[in-house]
Design goal:
Layout lengths: L1 E7 L4 E10 L2 E10 L7 E4 L5 E2 L2 E10 L4 E6 L2 E2 L7 E6 L3 E11 L2 E2 L7 E6 L6 E3 L10 E5 L18 E4 L6
Parallel strand pairs: 5-12
Antiparallel strand pairs: 1-2, 2-3, 4-6, 6-9, 7-8, 7-10, 10-11, 10-12, 13-14, 14-15
Length: 174
């Protein structure tokens, strides 16, 4: 005969007792398991900065109680092999994304996944320079213009000039 009867004490421990009977012999053993209520589990993912296509994002998750590892989700799909509190992902496709995590404490996964944190991967901008490509030393000035199809916020040229359009009057400066 085998019987296991759980009993809960005030400290959150669940005690299991097993009684084994074989003929006239009886053996009793017990184990206590510390149980944490599910409503106390909390996993959060810190805000993520937007990134350009081909860039990297780094995300950090924390949990209460403190997790030994995490399960990460990108757009709701599990990221296999990503189980550390901080992850770095190479973002090669532009678009809108969300990242979430679920904590693992002592081998047990939380049932609740963190709130999804949104971030954007922007397309790599394309810039085209137009202007006179023929330059006569000492006698001509070239005006170069960078395209602004992506509404760029700043322009910095290799010679230190700034602005969408520059004037080049010096030979050998690139």
């Amino acid at each position: 005969t085998v019987s296991a009867v759980p009993s809960v004490n005030e400290s959150g421990l669940v005690k299991y007792v097993v009684t084994v009977t074989a003929g006239d012999c009886t053996m009793i053993d017990s184990i206590s398991i510390n149980v944490t209520k599910v409503d106390t589990f909390k996993t959060t993912v810190a805000n993520i900065n937007n990134v350009c296509q081909g860039g990297q994002i780094t995300a950090t998750a924390t949990s209460v109680p403190v997790a030994t590892e995490f399960v990460w989700y990108l757009n709701g799909l599990e990221l296999p092999g990503e189980n550390q509190p901080t992850i770095t992902l190479n973002m090669n496709e532009n678009g809108e994304y969300t990242l979430a995590a679920k904590a693992v404490v002592e081998g047990c996964q939380f049932a609740v996944v963190s709130a999804a944190v949104p971030f954007t991967v922007d397309s790599m901008p394309v810039v085209t320079i137009t202007g006179n490509q023929l330059y006569t030393v000492g006698s001509t000035v070239a005006t170069l213009t960078a395209s602004n199809d992506y509404n760029f916020s700043s322009f910095v040229w290799s010679d230190g000039q700034t602005g969408q359009e520059i004037t080049v009057s010096q030979y050998g400066v690139s």
